[in-house]
């Protein structure tokens, strides 16, 4: 009787450990990787050309830009195209953003897609 209880406890513990390992791995594998391709991203005047590379295929990708408070550029004055694009794994996409004014310092690129979003910090030239 005692061996049956010990065996049941061991089976439950092993099942919980395996569930924790595989559920954590699945969350990591499904996390999309979006990278700023710095050498292809630049600002001329009030136009930002931002190239992102996607490590996973995503649907409905759009970006916007935001800047820290106190800057002369606000997220309300930022418009980026294209919007709602579908991307394949490994694909590079260039976005053009029109800013309220020229920008230097730090900007944040907000990347949205169907089912999620991420923010990338961009130290501008």
Strand elements, count = 9
Structural class: alpha+beta
- Overall mean pLDDT: 74
Q: What portion of residues belong to β-strands?
A: 35-45%
Count of helix runs: 1
Form type: elongated
Return the string of H and E elements. HEEEEEEEEE
Please, could you describe this protein's structure?
- This protein is of the alpha+beta class and 125 residues long.
- It folds into 2 domains: 1-31; 34-124, Immunoglobulin-like.
- It is 23% helix and 43% strand.
- The chain has one helix spanning 2-30, and strands at 34-36, 42-44, 47-54, 58-66, 79-81, 85-87, 92-98, 105-113, 116-124.
- Strands 1, 2, 3, 5 and 7 form a 5-stranded antiparallel beta sheet that branches. The protein has a 4-stranded antiparallel beta sheet with strand order 6-4-8-9, with no helix packed on it.
- Strand 2 and strand 3 form a beta hairpin.
- It starts with a helix and ends with a strand.
Task: Spell out the blueprint of helices and strands.
Elements: H1 2-30, E1 34-36, E2 42-44, E3 47-54, E4 58-66, E5 79-81, E6 85-87, E7 92-98, E8 105-113, E9 116-124
Antiparallel strand pairs: 1-3, 2-3, 3-7, 4-6, 4-8, 5-7, 8-9
């Amino acid at each position: 009787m005692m061996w049956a209880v010990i065996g049941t406890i061991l089976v439950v513990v092993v099942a919980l450990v395996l569930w924790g390992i595989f559920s954590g791995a699945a969350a990591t594998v499904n996390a999309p990787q979006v990278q700023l391709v710095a050498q292809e991203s630049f600002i001329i005047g009030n136009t930002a050309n931002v190239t992102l590379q996607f490590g996973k295929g995503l649907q409905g990708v759009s970006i916007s830009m935001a800047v820290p408070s106190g800057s002369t550029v606000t997220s309300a004055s930022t418009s980026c195209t294209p919007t709602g694009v579908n991307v394949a794994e490994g694909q590079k996409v260039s976005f053009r953003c029109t800013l309220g004014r020229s920008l230097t310092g730090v900007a944040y690129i907000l990347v949205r897609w169907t089912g999620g979003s991420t923010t990338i910090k961009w130290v501008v030239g």
